[in-house]
Amino acid sequence: MNITLIAAASENSVIGRKGAIPWKLPEDFRHFHVVTTGKPIIMGRKTHESIGRVLPGRRNIVVTRQDMEIDGCEVVHSIEEAIALLERDGVEEACVIGGGEIYAQALPFATHIDLTRVHMDVPNGDAFFPAFSGTEWREVSRQRHEADEEHAVPFTFLLYEKK
Known about the structure:
The protein is of the alpha/beta class.
């Protein structure tokens, strides 16, 4: 099964601050929608809570240590359990959408990283994208976007695949 980690991270690897994304990049949201629609998405409980709803057009799987039910979502207790569930169902591709702890747990299983690098540093971040090695990952594509009327900061879409 192909597993893609999809994230937007600042130059200092921040993906969140106080439960929110510290920038507004409409093109990144459109990219996220295109990449994830029609695929199962795996996220942590905090990410689900920050989104505040089930993402439509996707099978929503929430990883949490807690015993709980979430309307419209499947709840599992580990990344391994999420992957086993999807493999059992014959799923060919899934996307991991955060947060920081979930990305770190999923990185060893990932086949692709779809990273939006936001060209700014974010002070006081509290959620981070994990470091990954250039010896294990190969850059497949790169598309830079300059700041414009919709985007206050420049950013680059980067796609990596595991070597």
